[in-house]
Write a structure and sequence with these properties.
CATH architecture: Beta Barrel
Low-confidence stretches: 10-27
CATH class: Mainly Beta
CATH topology: OB fold (Dihydrolipoamide Acetyltransferase, E2P)
Strand content: 35-45%
Distance between the termini: 42 Å
Order of helices and strands: HHEEEEE
Number of domains: 1
Strand order of the largest sheet: 1-2-3-5-4
Mean pLDDT: 81
Largest sheet: 5 strands, mixed, barrel
Length: about 100
């Protein structure tokens, strides 16, 4: 009986780990989709051609965004279709999360 309980706990733990990427994605109206046009690691910016971002009252456009964490620049390259999180911080629009669209 103890072996069965242990297997069940291990299975649940592994299942919860598999869900981490989905759970960690910011759930917000500030999420957007677009295509990466340029990645500039020196200036910590990523240029994205994106659709409307309703919560920020931003129409579709191509725009260079600062990234909150420079490691985000490793997530995508020019030409990738992405979804990303964006927030207004200190008067600037900042990418807070990004992933290549499936």
């Amino acid at each position: 009986m103890a072996a069965l309980a242990t297997r069940l706990l291990v299975s649940l733990a592994l299942l919860s780990l598999a869900c981490i990427p989905l759970a960690s994605w910011p759930q917000s109206d500030d999420n957007a989709q677009g295509e990466v046009r340029k990645v500039d690691r020196d200036s910590r910016k990523i240029t994205i051609k994106h659709g409307q971002i309703k919560s920020l009252d931003m129409p579709p456009m191509t725009m260079a965004f600062t990234v909150k964490d420079p490691a985000l620049l490793d997530a995508a390259q020019a030409g990738d279709k992405v979804r990303f999180g964006v927030a207004r911080e200190d008067g600037k629009f900042v990418v807070t999360a990004i992933e290549v669209a499936p």
